[in-house]
Amino acid sequence: MNEVVKQLAELNKTIATMESCSGGAVVNAITNIPGASEVLKFSAVTYDNEFKVKMGVDKDLIDKYSVYSMDVAKNMSLKITEFAGSNYGIGITGKINRADPYNKEGKDNEIFISIYNRDNDKYTTFKLIAISADREKNKEYIVTEIAKKLLAILG
Q: What is the CATH number of the domain that holds 9?
């Protein structure tokens, strides 16, 4: 994330995150970098669907596609960008090797990620498969893969 924060600052761009299964790992990685306050606008950890909806995520998308879908990840990235007024927004939803008794849809090892670029109204989306039984290792994996995608987007 060092390079991501550096490039965002150099480009005078900002970022916001709405994380679910990653539990704030991405924003934590960003805030571990000196100068993060220049680029980070806002972050929300929304484990419960109710709070995704309170943050603007379309309940109809959750009902139609399930909370564990790329459609919801995209909406999360858009809504957090709008809420924060940032250039980029990251939306993360999925399951890290754990069944959800309240949302039974989807595989228990899929993570859906969307990065929204407000400046060109474009989404970069990708799905990860949990790599380990260890949640912490999976969160590190998510952060690493998001950093790679952000660096590619930032050019």
A: 3.90.950.20
